[in-house]
Design a protein that fits this description.
Elements lengths: L1 H23 L3 H8 L3 H4 L4 H28 L4 H22 L4 E9 L13 E2 L2 E2 H9 L8 E5 L2 H9 L4 E3 L7 H7 L1 H4 L1 E7 L8 H14 L3 E7 L3 H5 L5 E4 L5 E5 L12 H7 L3 E10 H7 L6 H6 L4 H5 L5 E4 L10 H14 L1
Helix pairs in contact: 1-4, 5-13
Length: about 350
């Protein structure tokens, strides 16, 4: 692209300069010879006017060449241009090499995990059926048929050491990362895939088939953003703020994510009746991002919606982007609280 821009800049100077020289360097005798057979003579132009006309055309092209030199090589870029250039330079720095790397993986899974959870500190290493939660997440992800790599991302030495003990690839990220997506962006070079599936580190029962469905959706539509949702059939789940709901448009894509039930059914105070009015969808904590989407995310401002709901995907939504949705029957059993861990233990027992 830079080469094409340079060629255009040179051409914008060379072409008008060449034309100007044709008109200005031509001798008066040559003009007079052409005048006798030109239409200008029959249009009422005198020889002097004829020569003057083409000299002026030459001057005009010379001015155009000078203007091109000034715009391309002398004038300082405007502040707006600088901001735009800095933005795209940053995008290219993060994603440009990705698209040109022949050895880039097709799809990978990233599992962000941290010990400093507000509601359940240390939950990645909490034991579930004799195994750490993060170990169960990793083992489930490894069963994906389409992901070529699975890596744990963390800012915790304890989690990194544990990952090493189970031979799981791990990348240390900084403590400044505010979300799993930011960890993926920071570790993107080590992940090295065109499409990255973000699986929450507190989803020990994540379905490998669901992960593959997200990757398949990206392959089928080349969508930059893919996530999953399951239909809600229980009123308690509908009003539970720990269960994130997704509002969908007519094409099935995500319009908004919220901890509140959406849409609100006017004139009906019983949430159980809401389920009879329309379909409600539970968001499953899995995201598929293209390299291009990840580069965009890092340049988007944190929105009021994201701050209020504490949902990282709303940064994309507030900027006008939409997620493709994979429908699934998978019932997410995430570990957000100690009570959730107890429920997960009971669920694990029911499987044996």
């Amino acid at each position: 692209m830079k080469i094409l821009v340079s060629i255009f800049e040179v051409a914008s100077v060379a072409v008008p300069l060449f034309i100007a020289l044709l008109f200005l360097a031509r001798s008066g005798e040559s003009y007079r010879e052409k005048y006798d057979v030109s239409k200008f003579r029959f249009w009422g132009f005198s020889r002097r006017q004829y020569v003057l006309f083409f000299r002026l055309v030459g001057v005009l092209f010379l001015l155009l060449a000078c203007f091109a030199v000034y715009k391309n090589y002398i004038e300082e870029p405007s502040a707006e241009y600088n901001e735009t250039k800095e933005f795209w330079d940053e995008i290219n720095k993060r994603s440009g090499d990705v698209f040109s790397m022949a050895a880039l993986l097709g799809a990978a899974i990233a599992i962000p995990a941290r010990m400093a959870s507000t509601r359940f500190p240390g939950k990645p290493l909490a034991l579930l059926g004799g195994k750490a939660v993060i170990e169960r997440v990793y083992q489930a992800c490894k069963k994906s048929e389409f992901a070529e790599k699975t890596v744990i991302l963390t800012d915790s030495i304890e989690i990194a050491e544990f990952a090493d003990s189970i031979s799981a690839p791990v990348v240390m990220t900084s403590e400044k990362c505010r979300s799993g997506t930011e960890r993926i962006i920071e570790a993107f070079e080590e992940i090295g895939a065109e499409f990255v599936v973000n699986v929450q580190g507190d989803e020990p029962f994540i379905s490998p088939k669901l992960i593959d469905s997200v990757i398949e959706a990206h392959r089928a539509t080349n969508s930059d953003l893919v996530t999953a949702a399951s239909k809600i059939g229980d009123a308690n789940m509908l009003i539970n703020p720990n269960v994130v709901k997704v509002l969908r448009d007519g094409q099935g894509r995500a319009l908004y994510f919220s901890r509140s039930p959406l849409p609100y059914v006017r004139g009906q105070s019983n949430p159980a009746k809401w389920l009879e009015s329309c379909d409600y969808w539970r968001h499953i904590g899995i995201y598929g991002y293209s390299a291009k989407a990840l580069a965009r995310y890092d340049s988007l401002p944190v929105s009021t919606m994201e701050k209020c709901e504490m949902l990282e995907q709303l940064r994309f939504v507030s900027a006008g982007y939409k997620f493709d949705i994979v429908e699934t029957d998978y019932c997410s059993i995430g570990i957000d609280t100690p009570e959730d861990l107890d429920a997960a233990e009971e669920y694990l027992k029911s499987l044996s």
